[in-house]
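#data-curation
PF: Archiving a pair of folding outputs for the training set. Convention for this channel: one message per protein, sequence first, structure tokens after, nothing in between. First:
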Amino acid sequence: MKKYAHIKKYNIPINEKLLNKYSNVREIFDRESNNFDGIVDVNKKISELDDISINNMSVEELKKLACLIFEKHHPTNKFKNCGNIIVVYRSGIGESIEKIYYNKNQRKLLSEHLKIFSDLGDIIEHATLVNQVIENKKRQKYNSWNYYFDSLKIGKKIYYLEFEVVSMDSGENHYRIQRLQLKKNR
């Protein structure tokens, strides 16, 4: 029997060099930020953000806004990265917004996160797979977790973005959660 027989035909293939390369997201940011100089220029002017106070919005309102931004700026929800198809569903956007909303450091970057949804397809297509983990919580519908990293320019600032893609038992790869960090001047 193959070592990764549970990985389906269209799941992101397991790369032994990336398997368990990092033990947590902090490690990804600390080590990968030194390797990234390619920058995706994120839309800095998003009309959906005009004349609203996102800091006073509920998590449910923010989920709807993030989905609206994504859907307005993308004719499809399927994107290719190195030949692998990654699908963005409303549920993944919603889960990402929840994680952002309830994390005080990520919530400080809420406006930037919302802007990212306008260019998420371009970001997915250009990001680099940096870590993989086999599903270890025995959740039947998940096969593996794939962690991508990229650098972004939002306005005049540079940010690092990490996002997760879960390879499902159905063979699909779903965008899930994103985290953002402002590049520190050294």
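PF: Second:
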Amino acid sequence: MKVNDAIKLSCDFVNLPELKSFVGTENGDDIQKAKLNALLRCLNLAYEEICTEFLPILKKEAIVTTNGEFYFSDLSQPLCAIISLKTADGRNIKYSLSSDHISFEGDSAVLVYAVKPDELEFGDETKVLFPERVLAYGTAREFFLMQALSDEALIFENRFKESLENLVRKKSALIWPRRQWIR
């Protein structure tokens, strides 16, 4: 999904349709640019919420310990949450966390962790697949909160949360019990 498309949709939600033609360009006056930059900040807040709380971006890395400890600063990307720690053959490893490292028995492991998403700019693509409408709802919510318009923000909060819950709920076939005749 392109950031520009989500910003254009959120322009409709926050009643600023005149800004849609300036999204991703250097055109426009200072006020229009400031509003677009505010919408981009709001989009990044909503995107971070989606990627840290609902649809995490996962990274898998082989790690090697020093004296049974591995420091998070040695990871290739900033850690947001640990998903699993396993041996090379897939068995779970018990571990303990500290503020800056993880401790476990053994010399090496495979760490699966969630990362904080990078800041998005105009023209970027998101790393997580979900409808642009969901990101636009979150952007509108943040924009209205910045404007201290809590009633409007609440409307988009509800739309945003309901859309995210629908995205992450378990999507499997429902199996109903067989019908039986009552005698």
